[in-house]
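TL;DR need structure tokens for one chain.
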Amino acid sequence: EYLQFKRLLEFKNLVHAYTLSVDGIDFNGKAEKSVTEHSYNMLCDALEINRENVVKPHQTHTDCIKNVDNNFQKTSKEYLENVDGLLTIKPNTDLVLSFADCTPILLYDPVKNVIGNIHSGWRGTAQKIGQKAVQKMISDYGSKPEDIIACIGPCIGKCHFEVDEDVKNIFEQAFSYLNRNCDIIEKRENKYTYRYNFNK
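>> reply
TL;DR here they are.
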């Protein structure tokens, strides 16, 4: 099972999906290798894409974004280490990232035909990985901000994301331009915790 964005379905040359958690399906390599391979094969068949075109980085909650270009096949495995965002303009290239309760950000520039898949956990959000991805599309591929479509996938809600003072300070420093009384930050009664939704 998977979800898709109506906005992105308008583009017939673009394939995208956000898979749901289903028993017996694994894309993270936590199950037996045969289960993971079977899961990828099922997904690729459903989306009519080639398994050999799948590119998946080793994510570690960074703000590191890499390009998958024509020279990608010549790069070492280290190229995809500690990477939480991928961009490409290369046809038939499938950018795959894993998300639990972190925020998926899908980017698409239909003019330059650039796609991006971004994993934005709280650390990546604090480091503004979404903004950096857009800036990289502009600098590396010549995209214009007004042409870029951004879709935010399912993620943890503000009602469930409680943090303590140390994380609160990190976010307030990173987003100092925000009004501290806005609804993105909510201090709960009788608890010294805050609720955040900074990919809003």
